[in-house]
Amino acid sequence: MSTLPHRLGFDKVSLHQDISKVLVDEITIRKRIRELGDIINREYAHKDLLLVSVLKGSIIFMADLIRSITVPHEIDFMATSSYGSGVSSSGVVRILKDLNTSIEGRNVILVEDIIDSGHTLSYLLRILQERRPASLRIMTLLDKPERREVNIHVDWVGFSIPNEFVVGYGLDYGEVYRNLPFIGVLKPSIYGAPE
Ligand code: IMP
Ligand code: MG
Description:
This protein is an alpha/beta fold. It has a single domain (22-82, 93-187), classed as Rossmann fold (3-Layer(aba) Sandwich), CATH 3.40.50.2020. Helix content is 19%, strand content 26%. It has helices at residues 26-43, 59-67, 119-129, and strands at residues 19-24, 50-55, 74-80, 95-97, 107-115, 135-143, 156-160, 166-167, 183-186. The protein has a six-stranded mixed β-sheet with strand order 4-3-2-5-6-7, with helices on both faces. The protein has a three-stranded antiparallel β-sheet with strand order 1-9-8, with helices on one face. The structure holds inosinic acid and magnesium ion.
């Protein structure tokens, strides 16, 4: 159970009132996902492809991305421990759910919601590489390059964004706001910081 139900607005009329600005709107997201889908269609034509989504933040991106792909592919899911209800990375990553599929010899794209410090991704890459995929590439919806603490190569980025805490389109704060159809900046007062 969330420990923050009241602060996170279940008594509110709309989650929209906790957003200070829309950073990426629905139309812009849709257009970019079409472009990302086209890249996959080109690069993976005639290749076996497995898309791995990291739960839960990337589910909406994944759901829209696979519908913009026309090449045959399979999907699978992993879950890692995240920030919980906080807003900054601990650097400690735990696997909560592993893949159902073997990735040995397969072409894998890891589909991420956001790369912040890079700790989560760096850890995931290490364990997935040990399983000897034929290729392993990374597609992330969002990237906050200013926040990077670990040097990693990201193959495809939907949008590079400034160092602000964002929610919506799958991204949460305390497990809430994932359903917002756009990517918005959360008002700092929501997580107890000055405006
Ligand atoms: P990293 O290990 O610091 O790169 O953190 C990556 C994870 O932190 C993401 O998969 C998100 O779950 C979470 N995260 C990082 N920045 C944000 C943000 O601005 N909004 C919501 N979640 C975030
Ligand atoms: Mg999260």
